[in-house]
Design a protein that fits this description.
Mean pLDDT of chain A: 88
Largest interface: A-B, 70 and 70 residues
Oligomer: homodimer
Number of domains of chain A: 1
Number of helices of chain A: 13
Largest sheet of chain A: 6 strands, antiparallel
Helix content of chain A: 10-25%
Number of strands of chain A: 12
Low-confidence stretches of chain A: 1-7, 9-44
Distance between the termini of chain A: 24 Å
């Protein structure tokens, strides 16, 4: 694989100054503009085309302000050879460094030479800017030990105890073919072509060692992960993620998102996090024939403003004691009531995306939310929240059809660091 | 259905001046900015958030500069009642007028009233701009006569002779479940949430009369339809659509795209066009292991610059007499050679989109091109081109998995006009 390819932009003679500088900037997870790459200013507004620094204490793509588009992919490792797997993780890291900086994964091939080589980049992102691309890697329970109990890579003893398949929940309709996986990569960008290009080139680099198990595209972020972002709407038409954990609250992130020294697996996972993904099919057609009152009582917020019921503005505090006409304004079966930290006793960083995967052959849109959440421990994160949603009125309108959990190592730091080095060393 | 809803933007107190004016502007298919809505200037750059005029001699969404995102949906009509069908077409037209201008499809429901009504808009595009939304309707052969020969709506005698199911082609693997349809709507926008919202609200308005047969999302346009647009790249990594028919060549459009007086069905279809859609699966993994030379010989252009082989620049003329080392530079089995008007003897307006629908369960990305082409007659348009591609070297890397054809009526003009009025009157 060639490692000396030009910037996608410089190759085409467009302004590329500062591209390399992005790699050197260290603000983990922050978005910085090219012009200020050498001295990132906290809080500076970033353009959707800018690069997000790849290196840092934490992986980018977790508290990075949520980009608009997603391509999430889970892999099966199809070799038992640890060295081959390490080689892919190293090649992936090198390609991720390049692609997140707006470069190609490797040389497409020179005009006057290299025609008889297979290109080291597939080419469909040539000429496109970095577009806020982040690539976030995770390791599934089956990487450490297969479901048959085989320790293929000598990692069984390194599995942190919280990294275990999620329990079943009432109403689940989990399809194993789109669940689980030994590895995952979350690609987020503000241009879907850039996200798809990144996943495809990692797939290409992993040929013979990993195989795509399942993948999911998402087109609209359904949560803010920064208080600088406007709250988006999900496919129920409601604002989603108003009270999400945000990048601007680092103490809450330390408490609920980042694995800390002393936690299980901290010898390689400190500074990392666990990601839970759930493909949640929304029953769009019955929802669209329900009244506004039913919809608002199901969610616990108003549809237009996103205000907690009984309040006026989106960011008015959720107050479960407010009564209207002698009834609690926020019903005790509403999603907000049951999911809120006050009642679930915990918090998770949501980072999901809407999807529409065509229609289902029965005249219905195959649409919903690809739920993604980061947490310090799945047991006290997603599992605890989900258990509390047993009586959620929203359950009538949704169904979980896939499930996965991965441990995401801390960020890559030095120029010779690679995804998973601490785990494999 | 409420018809007096506010602009999505005015409702939220954002700048909405000129929104209504867009409806009055008459430049068919052109994109105009809000500030210049009353006097559209040819060639003025349009913002991706602007509205495209809904009314005009031709439907928007055909020669309109191709937006970045697609949601295409085909419907079965599930009633035999002509009046019910007409009512849906009228309701769709009213909603399309509103949504393409950046408004909601109808009232979401007032804050202090209407809670016990079903909202007339699903809400997920509240606060989003028009985003260049176009909605383009088409009528399939089975609307005129079912495959069993039943004339449900008294339209059999109005079917133009060219509107007939496409013939089979060598290598086709057509899945009937994602092919055909009585009606279609092509929604294009620069924000996928806006395109998805529009389709979903049309589905909602048609409940009980039409049912979604299949739908397809696309994330990246693969053709330019205006010489003001940069040529995009398809998932083979090549520039696509360099020599497409363009909005700036109206004589060619008259010859190859628009149905004219004297053509079959001109009594209701003059000023309209036929759309052919083909879901073309690309065999991404074998393509990605082929050499640059193989890829370029397959396409007939260079990968980086998009130049015809033997030339230097993308827009250098395709010259099939150019030789390099005694061989024709553009191979006679290349896609460009066989598809070019010089050799196919015809031209079509391509307007396709890339798709990635996850993976296929066999470790491969389920990805490709959702091909869309407009023409004056499918027989002398797509069918003639496709027949000429029998020996196309690209066939090794693609497979057509769906097929559909629809007649798209001319544009809606006056304020009481509706989609298909001339056909149903």
């Amino acid at each position: 694989m060639s490692t000396d390819g030009l910037s996608r932009r410089r190759f085409f003679g467009l302004a590329g100054a500062g591209t390399a500088g992005v790699l050197a900037a260290g603000a983990a997870g922050g978005v910085i503009g090219r012009a200020t790459a050498e001295e990132p200013a906290a809080g500076a507004a970033a353009a959707a085309t800018d690069a997000v620094p790849f290196t840092g204490a934490h992986q980018a793509g977790i508290v990075t302000p949520a980009q608009d588009r997603l391509h999430f992919v889970a892999f099966d490792v199809i070799t038992d050879d640890r060295a081959e797997l390490v080689e892919v993780l190293q090649a992936w890291t090198a390609a991720a460094r390049r692609m997140t900086a707006g470069q190609d994964a490797g040389e497409v091939g020179a005009v006057d030479g290299g025609q008889y080589d297979v290109p080291d980049d597939t080419g469909e992102a040539l000429g496109l800017p970095a577009s806020g691309l982040t690539l976030t890697v995770g390791f599934g329970p089956t990487l450490f030990e297969t479901t048959e109990g085989v320790d293929r890579f000598g990692l069984a003893a390194r599995r942190p105890e919280p990294l275990t398949e999620l329990p079943g929940f009432p109403g689940d309709a989990i399809d194993p073919a789109i669940s689980g996986g030994d590895l995952c990569v979350q690609a987020c960008a503000n241009d879907p072509q850039v996200a798809v290009h990144a996943v495809r080139n990692l797939v290409r680099l992993g040929a013979g060692v990993v195989s795509v198990r399942w993948s999911q595209l998402g087109f609209g972020r359904t949560s803010s992960t920064s208080s600088a972002q406007a709250t988006p709407r999900n496919l129920f038409g409601f604002k989603d993620g108003t009270d999400n954990l945000k990048a601007e609250a680092p103490k809450a992130l330390d408490q609920f998102v980042w694995v800390a020294d002393g936690d299980p697996g901290a010898d390689w996972l400190a500074g990392g996090s666990y990601v839970v993904t759930r493909r949640i099919r929304m029953r769009i057609e019955p929802w669209d024939t329900s009244t506004l009152a039913e919809q608002e009582a199901t969610i616990g917020r108003t549809k237009k403003a996103g205000a907690p019921l009984g309040q006026r503005g989106e960011f008015d505090p959720v107050d479960f004691t407010t009564q209207v006409d002698g009834e609690f304004a926020v019903p005790q079966t509403s999603h907000v009531f049951l999911a809120h930290p006050t009642n679930s006793g915990t918090a998770i960083l949501r980072r999901g995306y809407s999807f529409v995967d065509g229609s289902d052959g029965l005249g219905r849109l195959d649409a919903g939310l690809f739920f993604i959440a980061y947490q310090r421990d799945p047991g006290t994160g997603f599992v605890q929240v989900q258990k509390n949603l047993r009586l959620d009125a929203m359950n009538e309108y949704i169904q979980h059809t896939s499930s996965a959990v991965f441990a995401c190592p801390p960020g890559v730091t030095g120029s010779d660091d690679w995804w998973g080095r601490a785990l494999f060393s």
